[in-house]
Amino acid sequence: MVNPRNAYGQKLVELGKKYSNLVVLDADLSKSTKTILFAKEFPDRFFEMGIAEANMISTAAGLASCGKIAFASTFAVFATGRVYDQIRMDVAYSKSNVKIFATHGGISVGKDGASHQMIEDIALMRVLPNMTVIAPSDAVQTGKIVELMVENDGPMYARIGRADAPIIYEENNLQNLKLGEGLIVEDGADITIIACGTMVDSALDAQKTLKSKGIDTRIVDMHTIKPIDKKLIIKCAKETGSIITAEEHSIIGGLGSAVAETLMDNNISIKFLRMGINDRFCESGDPKDLLEKYGLNQKHMVKNVINLIRN
Amino acid sequence: MMKNYDGEIIRKLEIMAVKIRKKIIKMLYRAKSGHPGGSLSTVDAIVALYFLYMNHNPKNPNDSNRDRFILSKGHAAPALYATLAELGYFSHVELNNLRNMNCMLQGHPACLCTPGIEASTGSLGHGLSFANGVALAAKLDKKDYKTYVMLGDGETNEGQIWEAAAAASHYKLDNVTAFIDRNFLQIDGNTEKIMRLESIRDRWSSFGWNVIEIDGHDIKKILEALDEADGNYNSPTVIILNTIKGKGVSFMENNVDFHGVPPNEMEYNLAIEELDTLQKKLEASI
Fold this sequence. Notes:
Chain A contains 13 helices and twelve strands. Helix content of chain A is 40%, strand content 20%. The longest helix of chain A has 15 residues, at 4-18.
């Protein structure tokens, strides 16, 4: 188990050495987002903005207008909903080279409760023109994604969770990772689970259980939700006939919606189910218990796959 | 360092301000939409900055050493557009197409559409934060360009302005100068009735800003205030411009009905006539 937040902070330090124009802003959460690692190494290029997220985003855009690659970090709930207008005007509409990197996405934030469990961020960011939206699945991929965010110009939003996460990838598996191109992590012929973020690992667990029950499940890690990898979705629909999407996010507007839109736009009618938070706020609790209660663990995936295939 | 601005230079800038006001009236009349009041009140400061004070190059709008001007109160775009056209950032012909489809002059400033526009504005309250980012980059890169930002007085109702005011002071951004277009009117009425702003001076000075207050239509005073800001170290400067909404057109002055309503044909003719008379008077005095 490795925390993707550490991977983010460490990668910023590594890239800070290579890119002298990399700057980082945080809103009084640098110890949690791990931008503090960058702050210690490059104090001149780190800007503590205090508890003032709106100002942070617009300031990041000002820095970007002068050739800086500006990372702005805070919790997903504050990094998007609270500053939607700033992102809309100063980042998306202006095509600023601002990278909003949020931690603490989803309900696995746990005990802090619904106020801190961001389940609308992907929808909010996805609807903005010019915005790339990413949800890495493990610490290794998180590091690689940060590299790609630095290498590619333009507005981007990435979200990771709070908790430690199992390692899915080795670094050399991801050398050719590209934004906008999903990964087939496990191949299978009977059904595809398209997942992002923390749900990729749960899907891999489900895949093993399903195998023992004779169901051959393909697992896709759709790390980039926008632009969505349409080709891969169509390929999976054609080759496996059924698709389930899984995300630690509302079922409205996120990965599930993006996949559904792609299928409908291409006149593809298949068995299809979206797993996510079912249009409601959740509550305080242990992350594991919350994921169980709100239907987002490998057990639920197994059940949903069997139901979808058999009915 | 205070410079001595001679009378002829000032008079020429005053004439330019009248010309810009005429262009604003023409643009808005043609577009049949837009914001006359708050455009007219900002003109003198914008003219002082662009025609004399700022280091900028219309032939190279992206010169990394340029001084930056950010129009945070984006609805005053016509004042900035007329100025940029006059300086050659783009053709005068574009002014005829303000707010028209397939044209570069958007209803509110859009940095990807128009040369010389630094930031996309129109949603109030963002510009000072953006200016701070530009100023932090200057400090980081050890460049001595300056960042100027124009705020509406009503705009300072926005909470983000005060987040930015705190940050500029915290980071000792003496390379940021903010103007407040203090015309006392916002859409729903008098600023003090809508949401009291006074004492503006005390508010900004308690946030650690160097505060200067002047007649916002006196170009000489504006230039002297800019010099004073330039000589101020370790804190940002705010220049409160005491202005008249609709300045230069008698029936628009202090008339909130012209916040977001363009002149009709009769009003247009009357406005141009008044401004023509003023221009001739100023020209005769050189």
